[in-house]
Amino acid sequence: MTIAVTAVSGHLGAEIVQALIAMNTGEPIVGLARSPDKARGQGIEIRPGDYDDADQLRASLAGVNTVLLVSGMAAPDVRIGQHRNVINAAKAAGVTKIVYTSVQGAEEGTAFSPVIQSNRQTEADVRDSGLDWVIGRNGIYIEPDVDYIESYRQAGEIANCAGDGRCGYTTRPELGFAYARMLTGAEHNWHTYLLHGTPLTQTELAAYLNRTFGTELTYRPMSVEEYRADRIAELGEFIARSSLASIRVSAKVHLISPAISKKPQAVHIRAGMTILSRHESMEYRRI
Length: 287
Description:
Layout: E1 3-5, H1 11-23, E2 29-33, E3 45-48, H2 54-60, E4 66-70, H3 76-93, E5 97-103, H4 113-127, E6 132-138, E7 140-141, H5 143-147, H6 149-155, E8 157-160, E9 169-170, H7 172-184, E10 191-196, H8 202-213, E11 218-221, H9 224-235, H10 237-249, E12 264-268, H11 273-276
Parallel strand pairs: 1-2, 1-4, 2-3, 4-5, 5-6, 6-10, 7-9, 8-11, 10-12
Helix pairs in contact: 1-7, 2-3, 3-4, 9-10
């Protein structure tokens, strides 16, 4: 069985590839990338994989049994069509299983909701593809907070509008671990998983960062209006609105108990611990 992973020049695609390699199942692994030269050096075959080029995708998926579709980064209305290109190319190439990396979030009422809606449309397209399928809905990456540690250190605080809301963070290596098993395990077929860690408040996040990096951070809550102005000043309007939406929707993390197999199920990934303290590992739990 040959497994293909799309967008392997990106962080998540590369982590999924490394997790598959670590499983050492003996199954060939192929990586697809819009710019193949940027994806070399991962120890696997790299093929071109531009989401906008349906013919190229079909050719690159020849001989592939299972494909991992990493959600694209284009505008929401554009990415729906791009994802359909991958799904249709997979079907035409004889692929039998597709795994999709979706996202958690509110489908209405935030600046990020159009992105969530586009992901939900692709989820529907995947389910309607006629292929075996698995869908993961990713929580928020912890890595940006880790990458921002020096800025936090200089400020002496984490400041945003999350208040007492809790966020179920994930790390890319943990997601890689999860998706590698979705790709290779038939027991995961026809399930939708919520992938996130134990929900943390921002005060708890600051405590983990302090423990790991020797900082003395505190958390300072801001009003939505204050945080919006702060983010726009630093990041610009579009990215700031997305950042604000992510903070607001992360205040509540829902674990959905399935009535049937197509409903979301819970998979706990322990709250970014892989980066922050290494003392807890990922576990699967279906409820």
